[in-house]
Amino acid sequence: DAINIVALGFIITSVISLLLLMLVMLFHDYFVILLNNESISIWLYLTPLSVFFMGCFNILNYFNNRMKNYKDLAKANVYKSIVMAIVQLSIGFIKAGAFGLVSGQIASQIASNTKLFLNVKNMNLFRYIKKIKIIALAKRYKDFPKFSMWAILSNTLSTHLTNILISSFFSIGTLGFYSLVQRLLGMPSSLIGGSIGQVFFQEATKEKQATGKAINSFNSTVKKLIIIGVPSFGILFFIVEDLFAFVFGEEWRIAGVYAQIVIPLFCIQFFVRPVMIIDTIFEKQKIYLYSQIFYLIMTITIFFIYKEYSFIFMLQILSLLSSIYYLIYLYILNLFAKAQL
Q1: Which residue in 179, 186, 162, 152 sits closest to 270, CA to CA?
Q2: pLDDT of residue 217 exceeding 90
Q3: pLDDT at position 142, please?
Q4: Cα–Cα dist 213/197, whole Å
Q5: For the chain, how big is the Rg over CA atoms in Å?
C-alpha cells in the first residue's frame, strides 16, 4: 500500500507541476505585470520545477520516515544545506545575481531527493506498483486532499495574512521586528519539534495499527516536548529583551519586547504542533479543517477589532487567545489518540 501511495503522490505532484508550467507559459506576461517585477520574468519558468522537487521531497521524506531511515533523513537535510550553500556562494562570487540563489535552491532539492530516492530504489519495491492498486488507494484516501488541502491553506493564510495585516494596520518596521521574532522563536519547533514529530508519526501509526489507539506514543511525546520546551522557553522569557538588544543592537530591543509577549504561545506550539499529525493518523481531516478555519477567522477578527490599539496590546490578545486555542486542540488530539472522538 505504502509504495503505491508513493507512486500516487508522484503522479499528483507531476500533474500539478505540469499545470503550473502551462499557467506560467500562458499567463507569463500577466504575472510579471501583476507582481510589478520585470527581473522575475525568466525565473517564473523554474517555479513548476521547484514545486515538483518540493513535492517529491515530501513524499520521499514520509516514506523514509515510515521505514525508520532517520539517519538518512538527517543526511538528506545536511546535503540539502551544504549543496545550497556551495552553489549559492560559488555563483555569488561571480556576481550572477538571482541565478545563484535560484540554482542553489534547485540543486539542493535535487541532492536531497536523490539521497532519499536511492533508499526507496534499493528496497526493490517498485515491482509492487500496480495501476489498479493506485486507483483503489486514491479512492480509499480521497478525504486527505479533499479536507487537508484546505486546512493547510487556512493554516498558511493565518500566518501570511498576519504579516500583511501588520504592515497595513501598523507599519513595515513593526512587521520587520515581528518577522525576526517569528523566525528565531520558530526555529526550535522547526528543528527539534520537527524531528521528534517525525519519530512520533511512525510510532503512533504502528501503535494505532496494533491497538487501534496511539495514546502511549502521544503521552510519551508530549511529555518529552514539555520537558524540553518549558525550561528552555521559561529561561528565554526572562532574558529575551536584553538578549535581542545585545545580539542585534539596542534599536532591536523592541523585537525582544514582542518576543517576550509571544514566548508562551511559541512554547505551547512547541509541544502541540509535532503531535498534530495524530488527526491525519486517525483520519480526522474534517475536524482539522474546521479548527484551522476557526483559527484563521479568529486571527483576522483580532486584527480588525484591535487595529486602533497599540501593536503590543493587540499582540498580547493574539498570543493569549492563540495559546488557549492550541491547548484546547491538544485536548482534542488527546481524544483522537484514545480513539474516543
Answers
A1: 186
A2: yes
A3: 84
A4: 17
A5: 22
Cell digits of residue 210: 496494533
Sorted by sequence, the CB contacts under 8 Å of residue 51 that are 6+ apart come out as: 13, 16, 17, 20
Q: Are 322 and 302 in contact (CB under 8 A)?
A: no
For the chain, the straight-line distance linking the first and the last C-alpha, in angstroms and rounded, comes to: 26
Global pTM value: 0.74
> Chain-wide mean pLDDT for the chain?
87
Length of the chain: 341
Contacts of 274 (CB under 8 A, 6+ apart): 189, 193, 194, 196, 197, 200, 221, 225
CA 33 distance to own-chain centroid: 30
